[in-house]
């Protein structure tokens, strides 16, 4: 069973979610194996007496050979329409950092209210990769659900793009350089990326992070049990 923590996270929202959480728990206790997407959720399940294997996504294969040095502070912010995405926070950051250009792809649920924010919508894969590789940094702001580990972080790592994301128990896996506790810290970290020497150090860190995430994926795959033969 592949567990994504949906029902348990929403138990406080009413009877239906509590019923689904109980069903979810029953199924997890009676399956041959459970997989989860990060260590934090595995620890939560362990506290409930449920065993699980952590199986990270692996960074996708992205050809970065054509990527050119980006001098301007062009930041890409891919969205998927998830309720955890902090769109208001994106607008706040755009209002703080001078010379910032925010390129938003995906599903934008709020009218654009800032001249530094450009919305491109959902893009074909090749166009999206071009936008990703022509950005100096990535931005991923989330709120509410602290169990979220956005897949876009794996894309940033694969593309060699430094980024900023909110700090939660889950996102700490990416390392302190890419984490921010609040909007002010997000703005500060993006401002620091204007310094070429500091930016070069972040590029090295994100390359190392890509290898860490690949290693976590490999480790999880090696722990998956084989289904018993009948």
From TrEMBL:
SUPFAM superfamilies: UDP-Glycosyltransferase/glycogen phosphorylase. It comes from the Archaea. This is Glycosyltransferase. It comes from Methanosuratincola subterraneus.
């Amino acid at each position: 069973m592949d567990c994504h923590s949906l029902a348990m996270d929403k138990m406080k929202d009413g009877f239906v979610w509590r019923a689904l959480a109980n069903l979810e728990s029953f199924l997890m206790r009676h399956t041959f194996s459970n997989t989860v997407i990060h260590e934090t959720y595995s620890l939560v399940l362990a506290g409930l007496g449920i065993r699980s294997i952590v199986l990270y996504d692996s960074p996708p294969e992205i050809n970065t050979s054509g990527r050119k040095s980006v001098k301007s502070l062009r930041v890409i912010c891919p969205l998927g329409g998830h309720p955890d995405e902090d769109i208001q926070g994106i607008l706040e950051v755009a209002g703080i950092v001078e010379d910032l250009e925010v390129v938003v792809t995906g599903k934008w649920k709020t009218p654009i209210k800032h001249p530094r924010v450009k919305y491109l919508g959902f893009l074909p894969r090749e166009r999206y990769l071009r936008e990703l590789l022509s950005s100096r940094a990535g931005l991923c702001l989330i709120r509410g659900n602290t169990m979220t580990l956005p897949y876009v972080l794996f894309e940033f790592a694969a593309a060699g793009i430094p980024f900023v994301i909110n700090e939660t128990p889950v996102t700490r896996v990416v390392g302190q350089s890419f984490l921010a506790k609040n909007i002010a810290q997000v703005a500060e970290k993006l401002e620091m990326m204007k310094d070429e020497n500091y930016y070069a150090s972040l590029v090295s860190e994100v390359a190392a992070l890509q290898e860490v995430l690949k290693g976590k994926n490999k480790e999880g795959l090696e722990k998956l049990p084989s289904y018993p033969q009948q």
